[in-house]
Amino acid sequence: MRLDFGNWTQRLLSVEHLKLDIDNPRFSYFSKKKMNQTEIIKFLIDRFEVYELAKDIATDGYLLNEEPIVCKEGESYVVLEGNRRVAACKILLNPHRYLSSQKAQNILKYNYSLDKLNCHVSPTRKDADILIYRRHTTTPVRRWETISQDAHVHKLFSEEAYTIEEIAAKLSESTTNVRKALRRYHIHQYSMTLFEDNPSLREAISNDKFPITNLERLYDYKDGIDFLGISFTFNGEIRKRLDVEEVNKRLRFIVEEVLNDNFNSRVFNRESDKKEYIEYLKSLSDKFDFSKTLSDSATPIEQDIPVENTTAQKEHNEQVNNNEAKKQPVRNKYKLFLENDWETGIKRIDDIFKTMRTLRYDKHIDVVSIALRCYLDMIIYEFLKKKGCLEDASIQENAKINKEHDKLYSKIKRYMIDEFALNEEEIKEEFRHLLKLGQRTDTSTSLSLRGMLQYIIGKQELFPDNRQRNALAAFLKGENNVIDLQGFNMLVHNQHYHIEPSQLENTVINLQPLLELINQTIIDE
FRET pair for 261, CA 20 to 30 Å: which of 89, 126, 377, 405? Predict the structure, then answer.
């Protein structure tokens, strides 16, 4: 659908008086009550790195291409797009209101704030929906997680009364994908109700990073949805085909499997994997009643007795709590690259690869992740060496570094001239070298991993398949729930930074075809 901005305007609006959108999927979806403005900002600080964003804005300024989208509701302008950025600007205006004393002092050191922001004013919320959805699903703006995207689709369907066909047209999605989003929304909402007895697990499920697509894998498989005893209506609502107690027990068990990372894309990927997992479920006759027959006529799950009022569910909850420490049968060994037997003939690289294959990444997530970071650095360097591209890659990286050095040195010189009334001739060239901002010309120095990746992405002849270069681009940007290069570096330098096993797994799945080709190239050449 073509976007029409003919009725839009621009206005310079007070940051203090801009209202954050209480219906934004990022946070309205996860709160049982409507949050006030202060609560929203504190929620964004806790969940969406808004404190860090405030520091970035204080350092680099507010980027003109990130102007908020607002609409007027009553006497207020409500931020429809840009809630994180506006919240960050509000923090800069009054850090002590939202932050701890230490963090507030850190912000005040920058001595920077914005009183007003240039905003794009949409005539109505509906006029902004399509643009906002596209920005958060197809562009470098911080991408909504799948759960937040699904909540936005459901909001269009339930609150704004769009049909599925109209939503598909507005969002440039297929009707199938819209229906899938509505199914995920309903199954996620219902899953949260199963854990009212366990607030910590409910909180984990309510997090927008909960891997809902893993759960989707099961119910998209015929034997999987039959095990759950459910079906879906055309608009994604859940219908039960077993009694509600049995449905709740089975769904709760699978959600716990997902939370514990026992059910994921590696466990339930190939047809043989799927059959093996379904057989495993069928073996749990002590947990589930398989004598019950699936009903042909499904009824809405919402019409049944609430979960918390059923005796069977209470007994099940007590059993789960009492048996938490009992070890479940191990089906997945949590090891990476089990299907690959790469050997380059370079001892250090091959030893690191064997280490990654040997260790369980769910138990040794940091060790395996750092080993993968080292492996990528070494294997890609060796690949470029085999292709005779090291010098060319070094020249490209040096050019980029030199450009950054020139820019930074110019800023420092300008500061010296303005602050101390110097002229350019008085600032000697040795000063530049003391700052270590000289021009790099040596192509024999080690390339950075980022530099090598950027070089490869720009050289189509190295990887003619766009999908392979896109996999590297996703690794650089952290797209598709993969750990990006900065994330791997943070593991080494920041003791508080951690990653989830599912992220490491997705990263490996994303890079695996590329690494296959790189290993083969090193062996062949």
Answer: 377
Q: Is 76 left (phi over 0), alpha (psi -120 to 50) or beta?
A: beta
pLDDT band at 223 (very low <50, low <70, confident <90, very high): very high
93-108 tens-digit pLDDT = 999 999 998 889 889 9
**Per-position DSSP letters for 267-318, written without gaps between them:** TS-SHHHHHHHHHHHHT-TTTS-TTSPPPSS-EEGGGSPPGGG-HHHHHHHH
Give me the percent of the chain exceeding a pLDDT of 70. 86
Cα gap 340→356, rounded to integer Å: 11
The answer to whether 144 touches 136, Cβ cutoff 8 Å, is: yes
Task: Provide mean pLDDT across the span 432-446.
Answer: 77
Residue range 374-390: mean pLDDT, rounded: 91
The pair of structure tokens assigned to 473 is: 């681009």
Cα distance between residue 414 and residue 430, in whole Å:
16
Structure confidence by residue, pLDDT tens digits, 238-281: 999 999 999 999 999 999 999 998 998 888 988 888 999 999 99
Give the C-alpha separation, 284 to 290, whole Å. Answer: 9
Pairing, β 299-300 against β 230-232: unpaired
Do the bridges between strand 76-81 and strand 19-20 make them parallel or antiparallel, or are there none, so unpaired?
Answer: parallel
Residue 145, CA distances (Å) to 36, 258, 452, 501 in order: 23, 17, 29, 17
Cα gap 220→316, rounded to integer Å: 26
Q: What is the DSSP letter of 142?
A: P
Task: Give the CA angle between residues 50, 54, 56 to the nearest 5°.
Answer: 115
Q: What is the mean pLDDT of residues 190-212?
A: 89
Quote the CA–CA distance of 168 and 179 in Å, as a whole number: 9
Spell out the SS3 assignment of 493-517: HCCCCCCCHHHHHHHHHHHHHHHHH
> Picking from 1-10, 99-108, 451-460, which range would have the lowest pLDDT averaged per residue?
1-10
Contact call for residues 119 and 70 (beta carbons, < 8 A): yes
**What local confidence, expressed as pLDDT, does residue 139 receive?**
47
Signed CA dihedral, 77, 81, 82, 84: sign only: positive
Output the DSSP codes for 306-370. Answer: PGGG-HHHHHHHHHHHHTTTSPPPP-----TTTT-----S-HHHHHHHHHHHHS-TTTSHHHHHH
Per-position DSSP letters for 431-453, written without gaps between them: HHHHTT-PPP--SSSPPPHHHHH
Residue 14 pairs in a beta bridge with: 116
| Whole-number Å distance between alpha carbons of 519 and 342 | 7
Sequence letter at residue 84: R
> CA 183 to CA 220: how far, in whole Å?
10
Confidence of residue 355 (pLDDT cuts 50, 70, 90): confident
- Confidence bin at 28 (pLDDT 50/70/90): low
Angle in degrees, 0-180, between the axes of helices 146-158 and 164-171, rounded to the nearest 10 = 130
